[in-house]
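Usage

Read records sequentially. Each one opens with the input sequence:
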Amino acid sequence: MVFIVAYALLLVIVGALIGRRVKSASDFFVAGRNLNSGMLFTTLIAANLGAGSTVGVTALAWQYGVSAWWWIGSAGIGSMILAFLVGPKIWRIAREKNFYTLSDYLDDRYSKIFSGILSLMMSVGTLALFSGQLLGIAWILEVAAGVPKNFGVIAGAFVTTIYFAAGGLLSSSVVNIIEVAVILAGFVIALPFVWNFTGGFDGIISRVSNPEYFEIFGMGSTAIIGYIVMLVPSFFISPGLIGKVFAARDERAIKIGTSLNGLVQLIFAAIPVVIGMCAYACFPELSNKDLALPIAMKNMMPMFIASAALAAIFAAEVSTADTVLYMLAGALTNDIYKRFINPGISDQKLLFASRIVSVISGIIGVILALQLESIISALTIFYSLMSVSLAAPLIFGLFTKRASNLGAICSALCGIAVTLFMTFGKIQIANLNATTCGIIVSFVIMSLSCIIRRKI
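and closes with the structure output:
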């Protein structure tokens, strides 16, 4: 616990010091558009290796085994699309027109109404995502030191909010370097200890009788297709990730930094899966599967290694939480307040408003985290809303001139309506879940709008 507290203080101090260099909204939102490939890689991988990729995937592996790989694997595939297809193209537009956020692009490509609707909707989903990260932090502190969940959620929000509000993307991009080093080192060191404690592959097989547990498609086609359709787009349309791409120095930095981020995700995906399977083999009676990772770290390795590993999990949750605050600050201040309420706001006042919104978002995130049951449920809310509403308008907007504002609005609204109807009606079509059907509908409607516009 002492190690985690010291690490948290380090993050706050470094973030505050860098925050003193932030003098404009450009510094806060896009780090002065000066991130090289290394900085872009660290800030992207830090954002992507969060509660879902660590605590959440370990929990899925504890329950389903090898097939839990599809969560991070899908994210890695989406990151590759961002690196070579979406990222360079939208970066050129953002550089030319001085865009800070994805919503700036949607406003320019479609309309203020469309971007405003999506910004409001994404703010709700992003708060759920932030709450999921806080839950991950709380589980770690509970296992590491018996800290009650409520206090753990508040502590996580405090650390993240303080250093992000100080300097925005500029602060977090520097702090992320420390976080990524701790995350990767902690998990790589922890893996062999967990593996040996279980007795390796033979030890897992001897304690798990279900053969589907060891199959890559073991959790079933419906769940896997749902993850692919939901998560692959999410990692090339996410406002938080695209905002970081906007901060790149040049296209070379985007291709190298973003693709390296995707490659590391694809490789890293195996680690929480193996740890989750080992945890199930040794602790099959857990009352809360989200505790699988911190319990494995605490009980399956020496104390000094366990401390470093738990700090790595803490780093993973905090690093993604700051990206979520970044998305909220951009959506609520630049995309909604500046665009609709106070278009003439000065750069300094926009910077101040962004810091205030970051603090308020931290408080709301705490309230939501205390109500949610699991990390995966929190993340699914966000990824579903984002993929269904944004994927089709963004892809068509970038790659065809026939994409229209009306088509984008209809695509997003119909996709969301189908998703909500199927979710609350508990309807499933063949092997397709609600989110998958919603995305298919949104792409079909966007395609039809382009065809109709061409004929007209």
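Summary fields computed downstream for this record:
- The mean pLDDT is 86.
- The first helix runs from residue 2 to 19.
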